[in-house]
Specification:
The complex is a heterodimer of chains A (200) and B (468).
Chain A: E1 8-11, E2 13-16, H1 23-26, H2 46-49, E3 71-74, H3 86-93, E4 98-101, H4 106-114, E5 119-121, H5 124-136, E6 142-145, E7 150-153, E8 156-159, H6 164-171, H7 178-183, H8 185-195
Parallel strand pairs in A: 2-3, 3-4, 4-5
Antiparallel strand pairs in A: 1-6, 6-7, 7-8
Chain B: H1 5-13, E1 14-17, E2 23-26, E3 29-32, H2 38-47, E4 57-60, H3 77-93, E5 96-98, H4 108-114, E6 123-126, E7 140-143, H5 146-155, E8 157-160, E9 164-171, H6 180-191, E10 199-204, H7 206-210, H8 213-221, E11 230-233, H9 237-243, H10 253-264, E12 275-280, E13 287-289, E14 297-299, H11 315-325, E15 340-343, H12 345-348, H13 351-360, E16 371-374, H14 379-387, H15 390-396, E17 400-401, E18 422-425, E19 441-444, H16 447-456, H17 462-465
Parallel strand pairs in B: 3-4, 3-6, 4-5, 6-7, 9-10, 9-12, 10-11, 15-16, 15-18, 16-17, 18-19
Antiparallel strand pairs in B: 1-2, 2-8, 13-14
Classes of the chains: A alpha/beta (200), B alpha/beta (468).
Chain lengths: 200, 468
């Protein structure tokens, strides 16, 4: 399946401070009562952005200057908790095209990669520097380069990291593996026969 | 050199190495439910794909199901639509669906083991992070996203990088009143909520040897709360005894062959691990969370941490947690007044959980002003409890005895906290808003500690309340 090669992403960035931001926070469970992902973008970080009466809370995600941001900059263990793909779907459908954080939870990372949403890690100090940079000037363009493994902003260049298999998948346009998985039907049958419990 | 169970299962199920270096891994058993599968079926239709191994796919409905037995259609049209969609998809593809009228419906991670579908040496996946539960049987079980649900429906495989293996050994013996839930909360507290990233946890040591299968499931269930995508216990005689005679377990001559195969998957004595952690079981106390992630836990006698007493890198998180929980650092957790007690979930909604609590409930009453829910993990658990008369024990003590489902673990059904209610919960996550109210507060603990909080009206040491 021909997919876009995702080599670099540029855009304005919004800081979402905090460690261990879980997927319940990214998309509360009540918004998962749906049979399609359509429209989830609207509910991204809903309870972070709105109070119980639906009033906007003070948060960068609500600030006019960050509207249209294509990059999120956050802390450690981003996306922990539930395996709900609704979380990266909501982020993607909100218009975000890359996430920079100190670390990602495993399942979230995989789900995001499969959507073509790169998740790159930076050091704590560089995360702080990047957040301060975009807090100081929301117009700063942040560029994630997956070939060079760098994040650049305002003339500064920070090293970033991403699991090599994910990087390969993104830059080569194979981030959705379905086509490759479908290729090996005969091998799948052979292994299924050998494991001895699959009944055919 | 010997191999770990993880390596053996991985090798047996590897189809090939993909161009990006990941492995195409055969998934022997695929469990699906109403929340994360409908979009996967829609993607399949869009791509013109069909379900490759419907006989290895099993469905149930759990997250959205009301537990107050009001029948169908559900009052919530969105929940009703999800149920109907799953029914339609299963019928069209020929997938076994443990539906509400089968007597086998329940939380997917309770249903798999009790039906004997969960077996040693197999790979299991489900669009739910607590799929790690099935590792209790020596299976390698992964929580996955919806696109991967599609991949497995269409190909019975998924693309995955190999995990490292950390052996978590808990030796010695547990003190009275200390349960599997305390063990896993202690492990997460010790290794961190992201300490397991990139690892599968192999749980071992005397404490795990002695645990029942249900205790092992409780621990494996919460592996993901420690960042480990999978967790397992090597299969042994207890594993085989649990499975024997279950509906989907091998029978007759097949049984002996299966046991021999299962046994061969256990980690070799000289297996090499990427990391080994040893914990003294005698040091584990009844443990309660005080914050907004499962690693923010303390022993019942300890005080809630202070910001100033916390290492610098974690202060912001402690501050955020104290603010959300409306607690002050330095206060005891014991004595905090609760509003709701929730007994259930894929972590602690099995027969032994209700049996253990029911031993201590007679003569006790749920405290005034506390709403207490007992929610069996499956219809099978509910029926067995009812045969044993446990439902009457719970009702007599003032608990509401409900029908099977995920219920207030994540509150996708009508069971929710209101406002900033404080809930003593046997579930697995204390995230902000997790139990259905934006400001609701969750304290994770063992089932008996939930019961102690329910009857005293505040967080208590179950050993004192029930004289253990």
């Amino acid at each position: 399946m021909a997919l876009a090669k995702i080599v670099s992403i540029s855009g304005r960035a919004v800081p979402v401070r905090g460690d261990d931001i879980d997927t319940d926070r990214i998309i509360p469970a009540r918004f998962m009562k749906c049979v399609t992902f359509d429209g989830l973008g609207e509910f991204m970080f809903y309870d972070v952005r709105f109070d119980e009466q639906g009033n906007r809370k003070a948060h960068p995600l609500n600030e006019a200057r960050y509207q249209g941001a294509r990059v999120i900059v956050s802390g450690n263990n981003f996306g922990c908790g539930s395996s709900r793909e609704h979380a990266p779907q909501a982020i993607y459908r909100h218009g975000v095209r890359a996430i920079i954080a100190e670390g990602f939870a495993e399942i979230f990372f995989g789900n995001s990669t499969t959507l073509g949403l790169p998740c790159v890690t930076v050091s704590r100090a560089d995360r702080e520097a990047l957040q301060q940079l975009v807090e100081g000037d929301a117009e700063v363009e942040v560029t994630i380069d997956l070939e060079r493994k760098t994040v650049s902003a305002s003339g500064k260049v920070f090293p970033c990291d991403i699991r090599e298999s994910a990087r390969q998948a993104l830059v080569s346009g194979h981030w959705d593996p379905i086509a490759e998985l479908l290729e090996s039907g005969a091998e799948v049958d052979a292994v299924a026969g050998k494991v001895g419990y699959m009944g055919r | 050199m010997g191999k770990t169970l993880f390596e053996k299962v991985w090798e047996a199920h590897s189809v090939r190495v993909l161009p990006n270096g990941q492995t195409q891994l055969l998934i022997g058993t695929h469990l699906i439910h109403e929340v994360t599968s409908p979009q996967a079926f829609a993607m399949m239709r869009e791509l013109g794909l069909t379900v490759r191994f419907p006989q290895r796919t099993f469905a149930t409905v759990d997250h959205i199901i009301p537990t107050d037995c009001t029948g169908e259609p559900f009052a919530d049209p969105l929940a009703e639509a999800m149920l109907q969609e799953l029914r339609r998809n299963c019928r069209a593809a020929g997938i076994t669906f443990f539906d509400r009228d089968t007597g086998k419906q329940g939380v997917v991670h309770v249903v798999g083991p009790e039906q004997g579908i969960t077996q040693p040496g197999t790979t299991i996946a489900c669009g739910d992070s607590h799929t790690s539960t099935h590792g209790a049987f020596g299976a390698i079980a992964f929580g996955i996203g919806t696109t991967q649900v599609r991949d497995i429906l269409a190909t019975q495989t998924m693309a995955l990088g190999k995990l490292k293996v950390r052996r978590v050994e808990v030796n010695g013996s547990l003190r009275p009143g200390v349960y599997a839930k305390d063990v896993i909360l202690h492990i997460i507290r010790t290794l961190g909520v992201n300490g397991g990233t990139g690892f599968a946890y192999e749980y071992a040591g005397e404490v795990f040897d002695h645990f029942s299968m249900e205790g092992r499931m409780t621990v494996c269930n919460m592996s993901v709360e420690g960042g480990a995508r999978a967790g397992y216990v090597n299969p042994d005689e207890k594993t085989f005894a649990y499975l024997k005679g279950r509906p989907y377990a091998p029978a007759g001559a097949e049984w002996d062959k299966a046991v021999a195969r299962w046994r061969s998957f256990a980690s070799d004595a000289d297996a090499q691990y990427d990391d080994v952690v040893t914990i003294n079981g005698a040091e584990i106390e009844p443990t309660v969370t005080w914050g907004i992630n499962p690693g923010q836990a303390i022993a019942i006698g300890e005080k809630i941490p202070t910001v100033s007493g916390t290492p610098e890198g974690e202060r912001a998180l402690v501050r955020e947690a104290l603010e959300y929980m409306k607690f002050s650092g330095g206060e005891p957790i014991k004595g905090k007044k609760i509003d709701v007690a929730f007994l259930g979930s894929c972590t602690n909604g099995r027969l032994s959980d209700f049996q253990e609590v029911a031993k201590y409930l007679p003569g006790k009453r749920v405290a005034d002003g506390v709403k207490a829910l007992a929610v069996p993990g499956s219809q099978v658990v509910a029926a067995r409890c009812e045969e044993l008369g446990l439902d009457r024990v719970f009702r007599a003590a003032g608990f509401e005895w409900r029908a099977a489902g995920c219920s207030m673990c994540l509150a996708m059904n009508p069971d929710k906290l209101a406002g900033d209610q404080l809930c003593a919960s046997s579930s697995n996550r204390n995230f902000k808003g997790r139990q259905g109210s934006v400001s609701g507060r969750t304290l994770l603990m063992s089932p008996l500690m939930v019961a102690a909080a329910a009857v005293t009206g505040s967080v208590s040491d179950a050993r004192e309340v029930f004289g253990k």
